[in-house]
Write a structure and sequence with these properties.
There is one protein chain. It is built from ten helices and ten strands. It is an alpha/beta fold and about 300 residues long. It has a single domain, classed as Rossmann fold, CATH 3.40.50.1820. The strands form two sheets. Strands 1-2-3-5-4-6-7-10 form an eight-stranded mixed beta sheet, sandwiched between helices. A two-stranded antiparallel ribbon has the order 8-9. Helix 2 crosses helix 10 and helix 4 packs parallel to helix 7.
Length: about 300
């Protein structure tokens, strides 16, 4: 069911009762003019962060200057750089955005003190309910998908592509909170300082469930993935500069991810990895999409023609 909302009016908010989570979750969807004219089987880009409003809220932080990701899309369309795309922005956190799911079937959802978590099975919700719903209801093409994310959304995008590399033509990550691994990527690094944050209690358990983390980790997932499938994906990795670490960018985590991809024979398709003036802000997350969306478009077209 579509509902009104105070964000970018070009995006529809859909409230989806989830049989997987046992609660209703919202997502935003932008449908291009071609959809309104009756065209179906359009490609889709899934944009991840945490709360569904973030990509379509022009005031998500003070850097955004009243723009949203839809403005960037519209500008690229007007320039002829891309074709028609459906943009999908799912809610993958608690309703107040205080408890991130990490795109996992959470270890201890009962620890969440915020509404909107339900069973905590967000991995199953995203792949088994949300994507099929979008494709069934809005006619998104099942063989023309891309995924991208900012910060924890970047972590989730990497995990999604590593877990199911045959389902995406491309994956983007801007200033992702990429977790460190140990033993040449076989296990999670359990002393990674990010993991100590209490907001991860529901996802990772308290104390942290080491066996779960080892299996649900972006680097270990990459190393276990089918090599042919992950090399087929276009990887678009960008992050802020080293000079503003540790609070202004995820430079070292981005460099670590690129080293892991390089070890797998994967090159970065982004025009530049470390953006020299970037910050961990929505202005720069939008610039990442502006730079990489034409490459997503090319990858989707090539994948759909296979």
């Amino acid at each position: 069911m579509s509902e009104s909302h105070p964000y970018d009016p070009r995006a529809r908010m859909v409230r989806l009762p989830s049989t997987v989570l046992g609660v209703a979750k919202s997502f935003f969807i932008y449908l291009p003019p071609e959809y309104e004219q009756g065209q179906r089987d359009l490609p889709a880009l899934y944009l991840l962060r945490g709360h569904e409003r973030e990509w379509v809220n022009p005031r998500e932080d003070d850097s955004r200057n009243g723009k949203t990701v839809i403005d960037l899309y519209a500008g690229l369309r007007a320039a002829g750089s891309i074709g028609p795309l459906i943009l999908v922005m799912p809610g993958l956190a608690s309703d107040d955005n205080a408890v991130p799911s990490m795109l996992a079937n959470m270890c201890a959802p009962q620890l969440a003190k915020s509404a909107g978590i339900g069973s905590g099975a967000f991995l199953s919700y995203f792949f088994d309910q949300l994507i099929p719903y979008v494709e069934r209801t809005f006619g998104a093409h099942p063989a023309a998908r891309a995924i991208a994310g900012f910060s924890l959304g970047g972590l989730m995008a990497i995990k999604a592509a590593a877990r199911f590399p045959d389902r995406f033509a491309s994956v983007g990550c801007f200033d992702g909170t990429v977790l460190y691994a140990a033993d040449s990527g076989r296990y999670a690094r359990h002393d990674d300082t990010v993991l100590a944050n209490p907001m991860f209690d529901a996802a990772l358990g308290l104390p942290r469930n080491a066996a779960f983390l080892d299996q649900d980790h972006p680097i270990t997932l990459l190393l276990r993935a089918d090599r042919v499938a992950i090399r087929r994906i276009r990887w678009l990795i960008q992050y802020g500069p080293e000079a503003i670490e540790p609070w202004g960018s995820n430079f070292y985590r981005g460099e670590y991810l690129l080293r892991a991809l390089h070890a797998l024979g994967i090159r970065n398709s982004a025009p530049v990895a470390a953006l020299p003036d970037a910050r961990h802000s929505w202005y720069w997350a939008d610039r990442h999409i502006e730079q990489t969306l034409p490459i997503h478009w090319e990858a989707i077209q090539a994948y759909a023609r296979r």
